[in-house]
Amino acid sequence: MIDFIGLIFICIGFAFDVFGCLGLVRLPDVYNRLQAATKCVTLGTCSILFGTFLVVGVTSAGIKALLCMVFLILTSPVAAHAVARGAHRSGVKLWAGSVIDKYAEDREGEV
């Protein structure tokens, strides 16, 4: 039964990864693409790793999967924020349909 639940987590994670990849291809600018990559791929990969933990159990591979999940949850949002801030500071324009630019508001306060 636990193997079946693990396979369900792996399938759900695979679906999230596919949707994240579609977002990378279909979304209009770097900021929206970062959103897709960070949210979907992080959740998808963590789900795959958790499913792997459920399938293999408390072994060295299972513990490594849990540690990779923690590392991914801690580093992925920070890296996406750094890339988005660097892109904004280097002058990458937002999509024409973007409604708000919080980085520009923060920058105005710096001057």
What does this structure look like?
It contains four helices and no strands. It has one domain. It is 82% helix and 0% strand. By secondary structure, the chain is mainly α. The radius of gyration is 18 Å and the shape is elongated.
Q: In percent, how helical is the residue content?
A: over 70%
**Uncertain ranges:** none
- Total separate domains: 1
Helix/strand/pairing category = mainly alpha
Strand-and-helix sequence, N→C? Answer: HHHH
Distance between the termini: 60 Å
In DSSP terms (H or I, runs of 4 or more residues), the helix count works out at 4
- What's the Cα radius of gyration? 18 Å
Largest sheet at a glance? none
Strand content: under 5%
Strand element count: 0
Overall mean pLDDT: 87
Shape: elongated
Describe the structure concisely.
This protein is elongated.
Reconstruct the topology from this structure:
Blueprint: H1 2-26, H2 30-56, H3 60-89, H4 102-110
Helix pairs in contact: 1-2, 2-3
List keywords for this structure.
111 residues; mainly alpha; 4 helices; 82% helix; 0% strand
